[in-house]
Each structure stands twice: as structure tokens, then as C-alpha cells.
Amino acid sequence: MGVRADGTKELIAMADGYRESSDSWASLLRDCQRRGMRAPVLAIGDGALGFWNALNEVFPEARHQRCWVHKTANCLDSLPKSAPPAAKRAVQDIYNAEAKEHTAAGVKAFARQYGAKFPKAVKKIVDDEDELPAFYDFPTEHWIRLRTTHPSSRPSRPPRPAGEPSMHRHLVALVRAGAHFERGQLIERSQTTAA
């Protein structure tokens, strides 16, 4: 799936292949490229290495965002049933952090507190620590959709009143044009050049 500059979602491609196969994913992505698709600004996926390897080969400029729903489920699944509820809450708090620096602090605290006792669970988060907060560099309005590929965790938006323009469309166009966002807010050009 993808999002066009006007904000509309679209099925980009579907093909038979082996789920973890880099060759299958690369073939699908090259087909998209041949049909005129530019490199995605951000690609969101689970831990399937074949997808990420193929993305790096075909669209190396695309940023990576690991799916938080998959990551959280994998982490929680690796905790024993006897794990304290606080450990599970800590993972959920990282997922729901308000800002990138809170995510980083949460990951460090989780690793410090539970690393010795639950190293497999901690590794699930720490290994993708750089890719988990990528969505924070995009408009706040997009965060709910960029955190995950999982459809059930993406609430549908309430309908807009008739005639009201979609800010989402405007923001997608800005992102595609290379606009910079910090903490979900657009950084004006004068601020970027002054910094």
C-alpha cells in the first residue's frame, strides 16, 4: 500500500513470492519502479529481512520504520508469563511516547531494568532502536498511521465536514517535497537555514 501526494491510499502492487525472500521483494519493488513509482520517503514493515534487503537494493534512499504493533507483540511474546506487568507496561509506554527523545529514554530504561532478566525481550526493542522512532520526523497527523502496518491498530478517521480541505493531503505533498518536521511540526525554511 502507498499514499499519493494528494493523500489517497492506493494498492501499489501484489505478487506471488516467498515472504522472507529478498529476491521476491526486489522483483516486486523493481516492477513498481518500472511502472513509475519513485522511492518512498518512508517504508513501514515488520522484521522480514527480505523486504528490508530488497528496499535497500532498489530504493536505498527510503527511510525505514519498523512496525510497532509487530515489534511490541514480538517483545511481549518473548517475556515469560511470570514477567511483572510493569515490564509489559514499559514496552507499551515506549510505543506510546510523545516524542522521539522519550522513546529513546524509554528504551534505555527498559534495557537497564529488564536486560539481565529478560535479554531476549530487550533485544527485540534495542535491535531496532534507530528505526522505531522514524515516524516522529513526520507530521503529527501521520503518526498514528506510520507507527504500524497493522490495519486493526490504525483507527479510521472521523469524516471531514463537507467542503473542508484535507490537511493530510497538504502534509503528504510537503513530505514528498522534502519538507522537514521536528516533533511532528513543520520547520519553516528560515528556521532551518538559521540553525
Explain what the structure shows.
The chain is mainly alpha-helical and 195 residues long. It is built from 9 helices and 6 strands, in the order ββαβαβααααααββα. The chain has a two-stranded antiparallel ribbon. Strands 3-4 form a two-stranded parallel ribbon. The chain has a two-stranded antiparallel ribbon with strand order 5-6. Helix 1 (22-34) runs parallel beside helix 2, helix 3 (68-77) packs antiparallel against helix 6 and helix 4 runs antiparallel to helix 5 (100-114). Residues 152-165 have low confidence and may be disordered.
Quickly describe the structure.
The protein is mainly alpha-helical. 45% of the residues lie in helices and 8% in strands.
Number of strands: 6
Listing every helix as H and every strand as E from the N terminus to the C terminus, the arrangement reads EEHEHEHHHHHHEEH
Described by strand count, sense and barrel closure, the largest sheet is: 2 strands, antiparallel
The rough form would be described as globular
Radius of gyration based on Cα positions: 18 Å
Helix content: 40-55%
Average predicted local confidence, pLDDT:
82
Helical segment tally? 9
SSE class? mainly alpha
